[in-house]
Amino acid sequence: MDFASFFANYGLIILLIGLLVFMFYSSRRRMQKQKLEQEEKARQTVPGSEVLLQGGLYGTIVEYDGEDLDKPAQVEIAPGVVIKVHSQAVLRIVSPAEGFVTEDEFIEAEESEAEYVAGVADGDITSISDDHRARQAEAERDDKDRPQA
């Protein structure tokens, strides 16, 4: 009995067994990954965190019990408006990089704007105008490099 006849007789069975092992392994890996993601979300879901609900609403967690998922979560969607939702309706935690500006970033932006305005008022426009000219020249170069329709 040579290799070709063995593969002809048992090749399909070996292939099916290999496929079953692969499917079992990949589904187990996916389940472990989902479990880790759920644990991470439950750990990050604390009062005060910004969340996106499955209905598309953004809000702030007021009360959430990560261990008892049958207990509803309370989410504030507007000042003074708190709703109860199923705890698994929290789709994800919204990070500040996705459009929400933290208070520190807001204060920093206000300070830099105040410095700009103070520089213009003091007549220190040379550095501002030089910077503006450099940006304008770069934009013109980009326009020249762009193919025309």
Task: Note down, in words, how this protein is organized.
The structure is a single chain. With 149 residues, the protein is α+β, with helices and mostly antiparallel strands. The protein folds into three domains: 1-44; 45-96, SH3 type barrels (Roll); 103-145. The protein is 54% helix and 17% strand. The protein is built from three helices and five strands; from the N terminus they run αβββββαα. The chain has helices at 3-44, 103-121, 126-145, and strands spanning 50-53, 58-63, 73-78, 81-85, 90-93. It has a five-stranded antiparallel β-sheet with strand order 4-3-2-1-5, with no helix packed on it. A hairpin with a 2-residue loop joins strand 3 and strand 4 (81-85). It is flat, with a radius of gyration of 29 Å. The N and C termini lie far apart (69 Å).
Computed structural class: alpha+beta
Tally of helical runs: 3
| CATH top level class name of the largest domain | Mainly Beta
Q: Average pLDDT across residues?
A: 79
What's the number of extended β-strand segments? 5
Helix content: 40-55%
Spatial strand arrangement across the major sheet: 4-3-2-1-5
Gap from first CA to last CA: 69 Å
The share of residues in extended strands comes to 15-25%
Which series of helices and strands comes N to C? HEEEEEHH
Q: Identify low-pLDDT runs.
A: 96-100
Structural Rg: 29 Å
CATH topology name of the largest domain: SH3 type barrels
CATH architect. name of the largest domain:
Roll
